[in-house]
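Researcher: Let's try something more involved. This one mixes different molecule types, so please make sure each is placed in the same coordinate frame as the others.
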Amino acid sequence: MSSQTETIRRITVPQIARRKGGEPIVSLTSYHAHTAAIVDRYADFILVGDSLGMVMHGMESTVGVSLDLMIMHGRAVVRGTKRALIVVDMPFGSYEESPAMAFRNAAQIMKETQCGAVKLEGGARMAETIRFLTERGIPVMAHIGLTPQSSHVMGGFKTQGRDEDTWEAHLEDARAVTEAGAFAVVLEGMVEPLAAKITKAVEIPTIGIGASAECDGQILVLEDMLGLNPWTPKFVKVYGQLGPMIEDSVKRYAEDVKSRAFPTEDEVYR
Ligand SMILES: Nc1nc(=O)c2c([nH]1)NC[C@@H]1CN(c3ccc(C(=O)N[C@@H](CCC(=O)O)C(=O)O)cc3)CN21
Ligand SMILES: CC(C)C(=O)C(=O)O
Ligand SMILES: [Mg+2]
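Model: All components are placed in one shared frame. Result:
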């Protein structure tokens, strides 16, 4: 089957956009073909997030992630899936400078990964860029509130909207990205009533992470909800304990190798 036929069968950007106020949108991150194949059966969209720099590569923030790294993981996730919309994060430094630079890099991501949309961080300040991309055929998911690529300016990963005086600026960010043509917006790391208020204020679906159950959808980092990360922010609900499962498996394998209990008759060639 041609990859073009497969692309058409996936959940589309307009289908996600129409879910505003409807059944909540399910999404998770994936960075890897085989885990993405499992997520693909349940998620409406899969985000190849730049959090992969921290989760897969042990970086301290997402600032060091390159365009090539995003493309490499994006290709793996597209290959491993057939149903969900695949959204790839634009990494720090690949879109902020100008709309033209953002278009060039977003187009490269789309051509080389065959993903269906890109995501970039920033509200009102990125509105011109979001418009430039969407008018030229690149669907954009926006991302406001706690924007990890700005953590050096914010002084860390800080929950937003604790001071009610800042709410209007966040609302303005949400309105600006909507007006600019974003098909959805991630609300990350903000107090619950602010996320609920933004969700009511804009016509595009809001996707919450550390935000509110009122959002039009939710996203989590897959490894966080699987219990694979030693640290988890308060907003993570851990649904599985893969860390301890991996530890137990590796421990038993090491014991078997040392005692020559592995390999057995079943695992050798005669
Ligand atoms: N594995 C992983 N999961 C994520 O959700 C995630 C990443 N990586 N990398 C990129 C960003 C960074 N994120 C983070 C990282 C830390 C906190 C954190 O420590 N939060 C504090 C609260 C801080 C405050 O109240 O201001 C917490 O205790 O939950 C939050 C979001 C979310 N994103
Ligand atoms: C946490 C989500 C929204 C993200 O941007 C990422 O995983 O990089
Ligand atoms: Mg990200």
